[in-house]
Structure formats: C-alpha cells, structure tokens
Write a structure and sequence with these properties.
It is built from 4 helices and no strands. With 87 residues, it is mostly helical.
Length: 87
C-alpha cells in the first residue's frame, strides 16, 4: 500500500472496515514515533512530530497531484522552520 493510499484509507473506509482503520492509525502512530525519535529532546517533541507527519501527508498529496518538486520544497521549508523554533 502506498503512502497516499494510507492517507485516503481512513477517510474512505471509516468505521465500515475496523481492521483497515486500525492498521491505518497504527501506521500513522508508528510514523509519528519514528519522527519523534529523530528530533532533539524537548517538552513538545511529540507535538512537533505530529505536525511534521501532518505536513508530510500534505506533501504526499501535493506530489500526487503532479507537483513533486513543489511538495518537497514546501515540506523542507516547513520542517526547517519548525526545527529553528525548537530549543
């Protein structure tokens, strides 16, 4: 399953397929934890990881629309900005 399919699955399947929803949410939680483990220690590390994961979802959608360079550039700008705000 591609990253874009994971983004769409929960919204499209919702509660009609509980196992799909569970796997999708598990994937998102694992991604957030992975990002969190890459960040420097701070009190809001988990919040920053969730924000970066959300930005990643947006970048994936933008790339799927046929603008991969713009998606990557925007994502990189956002992550660099967030990292500058982190003490």
């Amino acid at each position: 399953m591609s990253k874009l399919e994971f983004i769409n699955t929960l919204g499209e399947m919702g509660n009609s397929m509980p196992l799909v929803a569970q796997k999708t949410l598990q994937h998102k939680a694992e991604l957030c934890k992975l990002i969190e483990n890459l960040l420097p220690d701070s009190n809001d590390k988990a919040d920053i990881a969730r924000a970066i994961a959300m930005a990643m979802d947006g970048a994936i959608i933008r790339a799927a629309w046929g603008e991969p360079e713009e998606a990557l550039h925007g994502f990189n700008q956002l992550v660099e900005g967030v990292c500058r705000l982190t003490p």
